[in-house]
Amino acid sequence: MATMLDVSLRAGVSKATVSRVLNGTGQVKDSTRQQVFKAMEELGYRPNFLAQSLANRTSNSIGLVVSTFDGFYFGRLLQQASRQTETHGKQLIVTDGHDTPEREEEAVQMLADRRCDAIVLYTRFMREKAIMALIDRIPMPLIVINRDVSQARDKCVFFEQQDAAFKAVEYLISQGHRAIGCITVPIHTPTGKARLMGYRKALEKHGIRWDAAKVRYGDAGMTSGYEQCQALLQEGVTFSALFACNDDMALGASKAIHQAGLRIPQDISLFGFDDAPSARWLEPGLSTVCLPIDIMITTAIDQAMRLAAEQPIETIPPFTGTLVLRDSVAPGPHFKALK
User: Fold this and answer.
1) Peptide linkage before 284 cis (omega within 30 of 0)
2) Scanning 142, 175, 236, 246, which has its CA 20 to 30 A from the CA of 97?
3) How far apart are CA 163 and CA 220, in angstroms?
4) Where are the beta strands (DSSP E) in 31-190?
């Protein structure tokens, strides 16, 4: 069996450098880290994590709590989290928070009991007070993703949901749309509230009256998007554009629009949110908001590792979305007037 010394000789570095790469400690250049991983792969070297844990009094693992395993979003998040954890020479332990604050808290405590070196929590429902209590209670660093916790901003990695929704709806307005429908994601979540608020703020900025009849409250799934859009159409609500607060609901809404004998974008323009892989395959391609999921989870894990190594950290600025414009939006009734 290959040894750590064999790896160091193959990689052309010291045994101490190999140890730092495996333990995720000290300063090691990324090119050197990749050399070590390449040598390990070529030699078939498998570090004894149990022995390392006993020697270093760490578990050599990063814990990750996600609210659900469903959908492309969390698939991408988990894939990138695994890759980034490996670059630090750690193992990733993932558990499901089952979309409830109580289960999320239990999941964090379970990972703390396993003595993970650090924990990353993706939460949609947990209150700030409960998050702060966890940060204070567990002995290892806790990084929170998807939430802006005002009392622990240096331990948060979050996305400007309201601003992204505002930009999406303002784009529809710039294209001459005034009657804009909206289908929300679960409104009892901070994400749902923020995206709906972005919609309202854009209307308000441009002097467009809020019309409660144009808003339907969904549960984030395709079926919900279909049913809520169908309800808008059957109730005779007038709208030239529809803002769906995620792409799955936009896809469901597209079926309801087609079944009603209407065309996208000639009769109704459609805008989504998330830039799911399916968005580009919709006919016509779905205009949407791209979230920097990969960079966010990478940043969260790097911040967690710095805290675990007792290195200084800085507050991470909020991430912002990018509009991805495809073919599902056409000029609206007021477009000529704008020009």
Assistant:
1) yes
2) 246
3) 19
4) 61-66, 91-96, 118-122, 142-145, 156-157, 180-184
Within 13 A of 114's CA, how many CA atoms are on the CB side? 21
Instruction: Give the pLDDT confidence of 232-254 residue by residue, as tens digits.
Output: 999 999 999 999 999 999 999 99
Handedness of CA 103, 300, 63, 91 (dihedral sign): positive
Please name which of 301, 319, 300, 325 lies closest in space to residue 161, comparing C-alpha atoms. Answer: 319
Separation between Cα atoms, residue 196 and residue 210, nearest integer Å: 12
Has residue 187 got a pLDDT over 60?
yes
- Asked if the model's pLDDT at residue 21 lies above 60, the reply is yes
37 backbone dihedrals φ, ψ, rounded to 5°: -65, -40
Which residues 6+ apart lie within 8 Å of 47 measured at CB?
4, 22, 40, 89
With b for 16 or more beta-carbon neighbours within 10 A and e for fewer, the 199-219 pattern comes to: bbbbbeeeebeeeeebbbbbb
The dihedral of CA 246, 247, 252, 255: what is its sign? positive
Q: Mean pLDDT lowest for which of 10-14, 49-53, 194-198, 291-295?
A: 49-53
Measuring CA to CA, which residue among 308, 38, 18, 287 is closest to residue 155? 308
118-157: pLDDT as tens digits: 999 999 888 899 999 999 999 999 999 988 999 999 999 9
What's the rounded Cα separation, in Å, for the pair 156 and 126?
14
Q: What is the pLDDT of residues 174-185, one digit of tens each?
A: 999 999 999 999
Residue 145 has phi, psi (to 5 degrees) of -115, 140
- State how far the alpha carbon of 284 is from the alpha carbons of 251, 269, 278, 325, in Å: 11, 10, 11, 11
